[in-house]
Amino acid sequence: MKKGTTLHIVILMMALALGTYTPAVVAQTATAPAAGDGSSGSPYQIAGLENLYWIAENNARWAYNYIQTANIDASATSGWFSGSGWTPIGDATNNFTGSYNGQNHTISNLTINRPSTNYVGLFGYANGATLSHLNLSGFTITGNMMVGALAGRSYESSVSYMTTSGSVNGYISSGGLIGNAYSGSVTNSQNAASVSGNSYIGGVIGQSSGCSVTDCRNSGAVSGSGQYIGGLIGEHTIETVNRCANTGTVTVSSTPSYIGGLIGGIGLLADVTHSYNNGIVNGYRFTGGLAGRNDTGNIGNCYSTGTVSGYSNVGGLVGQNGGIIDNCYSSGQVSATDSWYGGLTGSGGTSSVNNCFWDTEASGQSSSAAGTGKTTGEMKTVDTFTDVSTAGLTTAWDFETNPNDDAANNNWWDLDYSGAINSGYPYLSWQDGSNVSLPVELASFSAVYDRGSVILEWVSESEVDNLGYILERKTERDADWIRIASYRTHSELKGQGNTSSRTGYRFVDANVRPGETYSYRLSDVDTQGRTTVKDIIVLTLDADLPPLRTELLSTCPNPFNPDAKIQFALAEDTEVTLSVVNTLGQQVKIILNGERKTAGSHSVHWNGRKASGQPAPSGAYILVLKTADVVKTKKVMLMR
User: Fold this and answer.
1) Residue 473: helix, strand or coil by DSSP?
2) pLDDT for position 15
3) Per residue in 69-79, is it b (16+ CB within 10 Å) or e — as a string?
4) Domains 440-540 and 551-638 agree in fold
């Protein structure tokens, strides 16, 4: 070994021992992608950090199309630009207008440390862009105004299928995903990052206006010291928030205003529907479990179970209400140290709050600026929300299986009597994708005239605390329903108590006359003695021959994986369309498309795949059978 080399090694070892040696930081390198030309048909393929930086370093590349082909570790960005880290793609002068599809890959450990810079994120300013299917994790992002892990500002852009986890800190308009969203849409995205700042701070979006937000969740901690701080969005105006949720904590320092579990402030022309909060909310002025302030917006079919505390204008659902609230409830504990607080709303108008309730026991509040107080037991009973004789209810909520006075069929709500889901309080049916709401989940109820008798058959998907069934009958001449069978007098009508298995029941009504029209009503009775009407069916008996009916019959098996046999009967020769739709009403596959079939029984198979050939995800689906004059539906469950 040469003497000089030996000396260098000794010096290096001494430096390491003294802690004075710092390895040189590798400078950022831009490398053009190896494949693609940036067109929509052949997007540039981003395979590493050097490809990603190739986009950022030149604004001439901000109008092209990109796909990510591998996970990218961006740890090196912590040493870029003297510690400032990543330089965002797109700024206020030159926006990113192209598309970036992460193809479900991840960019991890991104660092941005630019506390005096606006429009900070992986993308600084996206305008008319399409950003999708990307996971951002382990990031540390700091900026001034309009700061988000994905984008500082999204203007008329489409953002979908994103996940974020790490930390975001900004002063104004900061979000775990997007700092400021104007117009466009944000869908199917989740944030688990902590987000902090001064004003307009949200778990997913700091501030949104004219941007529709659908199927988004936040579980990250959100904190602020100014105004408009929300678990999902700091402030939202002029569009819809639908099927969204917050489970993260929302806290404040200093004395800020407009603090909400889901949204800090709901403004002009905004609708918030089918959404919930169960995170803890600790605010100051205008603080609510769902929203701190509802200025002129519409809130419908929402709830909050989170604990809420503040100084004044504090409510279990909304701190101050100036808009419309329909079919909502709150059940979290509510406390305030000054004035204007209540179980449902802290202050505001009462005439625009309809069919809304709060739990007087769990909240610790016997009064509210609006709404009707109920005990915990009443809040966990479906009759409270569907029997219009209940105090505070003028129109029934739309539940699965249509109990009591519920005549609607959108099935927004569900309730689990076992208490396993949402501690027994009502919840939104999209949360679990199946019907478990009542003591009995009815799969089918049918009546057939055969050899002088009416055969009544029904199948339950599952039963909770079910004593049994009651059958009632009425003709056109009868003023009231007449009981013809009960679980007390007919053993075949006794329930299964608690079961998650399908159970079939059968009863024969032999006391009928040909040519008569009969209505049959089926009800169940739970262990607390509550009776719930399950279904009503009407049957006209032919004077000579039993009629053939067009029906969707059994699906075997149900639930199924991966193949289901679908059986149906036709009353006459006709053209038949049989399709599968999801619970949002979106078509999944057409099995029969206007095919000519003869009268009688038929069966087809569905292999559990979409029209594209891709496997359909697990969940509930609706079979729709259509002929020239008949439409029949039946629910099936695909369980992979």
Assistant:
1) strand
2) 39
3) beebebebbbb
4) yes
Classified by CATH at the fold level, domain 440-540 comes out as Immunoglobulin-like (2.60.40)
CB atoms within 10 A of CB 552: 18
Q: Tell me whether residue 121 is exposed, middle or buried, using C-beta atoms within 10 angstroms of its C-beta: 0 to 12, 13 to 18, 19 or more.
A: buried
Tokens of 355: 């069919």
Phi, psi of 591 (to 5 degrees): -90, -45
CATH number 2.60.40.4070 is the correct assignment for the domain at 551-638: yes
C-beta separation of 49 from 105 below 8 A: no
In DSSP terms, 428 is beta-bridged to 413
Backbone Cα Rg of the chain: 30
User: What amino acid is encoded at 537 in this protein?
Assistant: I
CA distance 384 to 379: 7
| 8 A C-beta contact, residue 49 and residue 57 | no
Contact 68, 102 (CB under 8 A): yes
Token pair, residue 640, equals 């992979």
Report percent pLDDT > 70 for the chain. 92
Phi first, then psi: give them for residue 220, nearest 5 degrees.
-80, 155
**pLDDT mean over 213-241:** 97
Q: Name the β-bridge partners of 259.
A: 229, 287
Q: Is-contact 211 186, C-beta < 8 A?
A: yes
Quick: pLDDT tens for 185-209.
Answer: 999 999 999 999 999 999 999 999 9
346: alpha, beta or left? (left if phi > 0; alpha if psi -120 to 50): alpha
**Coil vs helix vs strand at 335:** strand
For residue 314, give the amino acid letter.
V
pLDDT for 26 equals: 45
DSSP 407: -
3-state DSSP helix/strand/coil percent for the chain, to nearest 5? 10, 50, 40
Quick check: 389 and 406 in contact, CB under 8 A? no
Count CB neighbours of 371 within 10 A. Answer: 28
Q: How far apart are CA 86 and CA 365, in angstroms?
A: 50
Could you tell me the residue ranges of all domains in the chain? Answer: 1-144+154-170, 394-437, 440-540, 551-638
Q: What CA–CA distance (Å, rounded) separates 194 from 213? A: 20
